[in-house]
Amino acid sequence: MVTPEPDGNFLVKIGFLKVMHKYEVTFTLPPLPKLGREVCAVPTPSLHLKVLSITPVPEGFCVKCEYIAHKEGVLKEELVLACETNDGVSVRVVLQARVMDRHHGTPMLLDGVRCMGAELEYDSEQSDWRGFD
């Protein structure tokens, strides 16, 4: 699930997901000597990915995220881990998923990925707003 990239960053494959569903994604990164033990997540620009926790473990760091599969296709979301004591040091982690529409296929979640349920969709037919007549 976690693949080191030649540039020192990581690719995390999370499997086949269903559109408009929320997932908890937990993965372990190996020790990151350049970051040390004080690692934090840089705020992500994505509204669909949220880092919940980063915990040091004997194998490195356990990262727990929340991800909403917001559209179909192959999606990549990026998060950046940084050293709390050295501003110039960071590691980029790309989460990659294949997202299917809600009427086709069966999700195939990789280890560490758990479906937390469907997200509500906005339905303009149910809106109270009628506009200006």
Please render the helix and strand layout as text.
Blueprint: E1 2-4, E2 10-18, E3 21-29, E4 39-42, E5 49-57, E6 60-68, E7 73-83, E8 90-100, E9 108-109, E10 113-118
Parallel strand pairs: 2-8
Antiparallel strand pairs: 1-2, 2-9, 3-6, 3-10, 4-7, 5-6, 7-8
Description:
Strands 1, 2, 4, 7, 8 and 9 form a 6-stranded mixed sheet that branches. The protein has a single domain (2-119), classed as Sandwich (Immunoglobulin-like). It is elongated and about 45 Å long. With 133 residues, it is mostly beta strands. The chain starts with a strand and ends in a 15-residue tail after the last strand. β7 and β8 form a beta hairpin. The chain has strands at 2-4, 10-18, 21-29, 39-42, 49-57, 60-68, 73-83, 90-100, 108-109, 113-118.
Summarize the model shown.
Helices cover 0% and strands 55% of the residues.
Order of helices and strands: EEEEEEEEEE
The coarse silhouette is elongated
**How large a portion of the residues is in β-strands, by DSSP E?**
over 45%
How much is the radius of gyration in Å?
17 Å
Task: Give the averaged pLDDT, no decimals.
Answer: 85
Derived structural class: mainly beta
The percent range for helix content is under 10%
Unreliable runs, pLDDT <50, ≥5 residues?
122-133
CATH topology term: Immunoglobulin-like
Count of distinct strands: 10
Main sheet makeup: 6 strands, mixed
Please give the domain count: 1
CATH architecture: Sandwich
By CATH reckoning, the class would read: Mainly Beta
